[in-house]
């Protein structure tokens, strides 16, 4: 019984710690709403910084990856298929995206998109 209790407590602590590190989408969207940035500034931001970008979805590259431009530069967006389909967005559309900066060691910084919306001009 003592081993079982220790195991349950250990797993519970690990889950709580993981939850503390991961931002939920609602919190990320609230933070991103306060942080409108341009593509040219993204590379100076820390990993997992919540941001909002407004610009044009240039083209679909592959799977979940899309090229985005706001006139100050290009950046790769990682958009889950479910979010993409729900948005009704196509290449060439002006969009607003909210997500977080995702830095990498061996590839360029991109944005992990949590929300995308088509803008009407």
From TrEMBL:
Key words of the record: Signal
Signal sequence, start to end: 1-22
- Its source organism is Acinetobacter tianfuensis
Which superkingdom is the protein from?
A: Bacteria
Family matches, as PANTHER family: PROTEIN YGIW (PTHR36571:SF1)
Please give the SUPFAM superfamilies that the UniProt record associates with this protein.
Hypothetical protein YgiW
What is the protein's name according to its record?
NirD/YgiW/YdeI family stress tolerance protein
